[in-house]
Amino acid sequence: MSTVRRRNSDSSRTKARSPRRAKTKRAAKADAALAQTILDTPMDYVDHEQFHVRDAKRKIFDRAEDVPSPDTTWYRPLVDDVIGSRPSESSTRSSVVLTGAQEQVIFIQYNYSRFRVARLQERIGTRKPTPKQTEELIHWYRLSRTLRDQIAETNLALVLAMAKRSRSKDVDFSDQISEGNMALLRAVDKFDASRGFKFSTYACRAILKSFSRQGIKATKYRQRFPTEFDPSLETSNYPEERRQLDERERAQEVKQIVLANAADLTDVEQEVLHHRFGFDAGRNGKPLTLAQVGTLIGLTKERVRQIQNRALLKLREAVESRCLPRSDRRSNDMGGWRISPN
Predict the structure, then answer these.
(1) How many CB atoms lie within 10 A of CB 89?
(2) In whole angstroms, what is the distance from residue 47 CA to residue 193 CA?
(3) Are 29-224 and 240-337 equal in CATH topology?
(4) Is residue 235's pLDDT more than 70?
(5) Minimum mean pLDDT range among 4-13, 35-44, 219-228
(6) d(CA 182, CA 324)
(7) Measured distance CA(334)–CA(312) in Å, rounded
(8) DSSP for 82-136?
(9) Contact, 168 vs 176, CB < 8 A?
(10) Helix, strand, coil: what percent of the chain each, to 5?
(11) Which of 42, 234, 309, 329 is deepest in the core (most CB within 10 A)?
(12) What is the pLDDT, as a whole number, of residue 87?
């Protein structure tokens, strides 16, 4: 009995471990895929003398001054205020402004993280990374992304300030903000903190230059396409709608000729056309077949067909006399004026 209980206990432990092992395998597979993506994309960095000293990691991270994290809760409301989508008194007073020393610290940390990724890329090359190399590669890559986001979020106010300073009539303000954010990220990647300048000095110029390029593109586009963009034109079905309108107008004209008997139709011919094409609303407007018309007026199906063809020939001549010059009446094949039962 105790043996059976022991086996059941071992079985339950195995089942409990299975989901954990599956989760671990999925995580390892995801890490391997991410590592391969990182290896396939060369990593650029701004070099610094501290990267090549002994015990660089400890000096750059452990002994460095703490850099406060930004508070971006002000950003979305303030953008809405500038655009005009919501009235409020939001401001950037809650944003973080870094000192020159703090900027030095965070930019050195950011570029050192990218430096370590680049070194691992060179070391691994085209070979498959070991588990330890994969872990180290992902660690430095994620750290670099985190530091990059922190720098960009800290300097979001620069984008708004430059956007309000150089607003363009040809560019939507939200598009201008997006362009400024992309310019800010490019500035973060290229800024060299070792030169001793503030990041805002470099970033403001980069953002303004991106706004200038965006304005030039918008001006060229408006010169080439001066009309306003109309989304409905992208899904326009004008040719088909025009064709259907023409057909309805022609059918209505033929109907008026029949009702007014402008084609000198006989009583039998009018009766056949009324039944075949449903011209008369008093007859419920429903077309009948040749056999049904023949039964109704006491003629054979073939005889009804002959009367219908003769009546249609008279209608064609009446339409030609109204719409076509005399020289073109014989050459017209009646294709545009052909009518058929619904």
Answers:
(1) 7
(2) 10
(3) no
(4) no
(5) 4-13
(6) 63
(7) 10
(8) HHTSS-----STTS----HHHHHHHHHHHHHHHHHHHHHHHHHTTSPPPHHHHHH
(9) yes
(10) 70, 0, 30
(11) 329
(12) 45
Nearest-angstrom CA–CA distance, 152 and 187: 9
Q: Give the model's pLDDT for residue 336.
A: 43
Per mean pLDDT, which range of 79-83, 97-101, 177-181, 238-242 is the poorest?
A: 79-83
Q: Where are the domains of the chain?
A: 29-224, 240-337
Predicted pLDDT at 111: 95
Phi, psi of 78 (to 5 degrees): -70, -40
Closest CA to 76 of 4, 149, 146, 177: 177
Mean pLDDT, the chain, as a whole number? 80
CA distance 264 to 16: 94
- Write down the residue that tokens 């973080």 correspond to: 96
Question: Rounded CA gap, 162 and 204, in Å?
Answer: 7
Contact 210, 170 (CB under 8 A): no
- For 64-92, give the secondary structure using H, E and C: CCCCCCCCCCCHHHHHHHHHCCCCCCCCC
Burial 136-166 (b: 16+ CB within 10 A, else e): bbbebbebbeebbebbbbbbbbbbbebbeeb
For residue 20, the surrounding DSSP H or E stretch is helix 2-40
The helix/strand count (H/E) of the chain reads as 12, 0
Architecture of domain 240-337: Orthogonal Bundle (1.10)
Q: Which class is 29-224 in CATH?
A: mainly alpha
pLDDT at 21 over 70: yes
Distance CA 171, CA 215 (A): 7
N-term to C-term CA, the chain: 85
Q: What is the mean pLDDT of residues 177-196?
A: 92
Record the tokens describing residue 212, joined without a space: 């200038």
pLDDT given at position 82: 58
Tell me if residue 328 falls in helix, strand or coil: helix
Are the beta carbons of 67 and 102 closer than 8 angstroms?
Answer: yes
CA distance to 278, 283, 332, 342, per residue, from 288 (Å) = 8, 11, 28, 10
